[in-house]
Batch of 3 targets.
Target 1
Amino acid sequence: MLTAIAKEYGNGRLLFIGSTDLDTQQPVIWNVGAIAASGHPRALDTIRRLLLASAAIPAAFPPMMFDVTVDGKAYQEMDVDGGAFVQTFLYPASVTVQRRTRMANDQPVPAAAAYIIRNGRLDPEWATVQRRTLDIAGRAISTMIAASGYNDILHIYNTTQKDSVDFNLAYIGPNFNMDLPAPFDPS
């Protein structure tokens, strides 16, 4: 799989995965293709660890620690689920600069398609909220999270339209109604 990702990166395809650096309260966008194509002996381990970090829901799963060096100083970056900062993202802004410049100068712009995977619903989920402080607070937080995810998709759609990028979205639809027996149930 590492070789296939590296090959597609060489063909101009981009695969990004996001996590959140809790120390800096910033999103981290990992260029998985560049890591795979780097030939670094720890590339496979790094990709496995960043996949774990990107799914490490705070307080439910442990964060992943990454050794980094900034301005010659070594420290550890603590990364968790990218949803702590943004639930869904398209690509870094730097990717669009070159594309928009070419479009503005009437230069040829290669066809591009974005495939967005939203591991969640986009429709509201009705529930009776008990008139107690903790229940109200919990529902308000889940509402903010749901609205944030929905707004992320709208932002991405608008960006693809500005950049002339084909938009494709997969998400959990309103017809999915399976009740989970427990949180994080493998089945």
Target 2
Amino acid sequence: MKIAISSEGTSLESPVDPRFGRARYFALADTDTGECSFHDNTQNLNAPQGAGIQAAQAVANLGTQSALTGHVGPKAFTTLQAAKIAVYTGVSGTVKEAIDQFISGQIAPTTKADVEGHWA
């Protein structure tokens, strides 16, 4: 399964970015193979609007089945749901820790956005 994790950097030891739409990077981890790659989200980092929707579309285009992040706004959540991507919020620690928590079932998917739009 491919999972996307909002990340502040480009290593497994990077902190999980608490923002989804304005995350600096997305880590794409394959839980079947153990492979992990990092994808730049600069185009949405300073976007005046639509960052959540565009980030969600980018994550969907990577073939992701689940998205792990600190917080997600309503537009990003709706876009991820439409793409049939499960959303996990409240995730913190490093990218590696987030992957491990996901694999071991320590985190559960959320059913709604947990912040207002344009949350910084």
Target 3
Amino acid sequence: MACCGKTRAQLFGMGMGVTANGSSSTAIRRYSVQFEYVGRTAMTAIGAASGKRYRFDRPGAVITVDPRDRPSLAQVPGLRLV
């Protein structure tokens, strides 16, 4: 008897709703990760895991990022985990 994995996802609260930009809506809400830009000008960072581009248009900008990109963005000078 094969399992499709839906029961496991329900047990762990991992809903698979997909938003317009392709991210999992439940995962973003449940595991939101935010970074603040503390540099002097604007900056664009690219998440190593997702390949998404994150645009910080001014100092103090706070952006919610894909949780998979947390380790790589934490290494970028000028970004601070909120």
